[in-house]
Amino acid sequence: MQAGTIQVNRRDYRVPSSPLVVICVDGCETDYISEAVKAGVAPNLERMIGTGAMFAADCVVPSFTNPNNLSIVTGAPPSVHGICGNYFYDRDADGGRGAEVMMNDPKYLRAPTILAAFAGRGAKVVVITAKDKLRKLLGHGMRGICFSSEKAAEATRAENGIDGVPALVGMAVPSVYSAELSEFVFAAGVKLMRTQRPDIMYLSTTDYVQHKAAPGAPAANAFYAMMDRYLGELDATGALIALTADHGMNAKHGADGKPNVIYLQDLLDAWLGAGAARVILPITDPYVVHHGALGSFATVYLTPDPNVTARIAALPGMERVLSREEACRAFELPPDRVGEIVAVSRKDTVIGTSAARHDLSGLTEPLRSHGGVSEQKVPLIVNRKVSGLAPGRKLRNFDAFDLVLNHAN
User: Fold this and answer.
1) 23 located within any domain
2) What share of the chain is helix, strand, coil (3-state, %, to 5)?
3) pTM beyond 0.90, yes or no
């Protein structure tokens, strides 16, 4: 690519002079990294932080996968790109009758991505994500290679810009519920960086391990040791690297190990009558075994009633209950994709719909989850020194491309 800048969603980005790798580590609160460094299993991360830069950044709320990955690749909040959950209530679906749907179709994306913009200028772009739910959103409008670990065996040149991925990587396609699904992302990224040397690469992992293991636990340190090895290999290629997360993770259970759950749909049905209100959980996706579709953020569709808002706010374990207008201002959300009420639970509590609708049989360890303000703090690491930041600037995870392209030395 020719040197210069490119503007995307009112932000200017310099064309990289070295290959650029931006990594979103799903569910990675800073403590996972600090504990892995302390245990001596992440020497490359320790070196990158020492010779580069590490910041505390805020992710997007709701602190879920789809809104934050799309914020990172657009450099903008959900109020701009439109993706405000993994799942939402589409009022226009089903002939205007409305339907609860996954928000993984590119038709819901309202802004161009940095990836597509650079590809349009001739950059060689590679996108690898663990779960297929993100692939079409991340790759929308982009010429280049774009595939998921989950569906790597099905990748074709026509659909994904590449075929024969498992043979290229030298790994069989792992289970979607495994640490290896994320390892496949890193292994594929290293292999493609060595063989094709793309200009820009975006890697996005899964939080299967973080849902099960706290920072410093053996399984967590093993995961970060694995990641560290691949980061060392990517760094050795001379690539610029920016690493951040889509959200943090917290324990959501009591001393007895049972989940702390507010079943909000059951309560509203009891208060108002069945069908008077609809609770939507934006954490919902096809992969609920490790979290049971329980997170710390919900939106409620009903005729506005200040008494209902107050009753929800008074529930034990609830942190913030806001009107649509208040929530959209506070969290930079698109108003037409949010209910009349937004409820955010505390650090140790999750929100459900009806108890009968949540299958918790897959929770083999005490519940860890995310979604609220309490999971908003995430790391933002660059493997080069950073300069030129405005004093006191509050960084967001979606500043990753700006930081590494415009401020890294």
Assistant:
1) yes
2) 35, 20, 45
3) yes
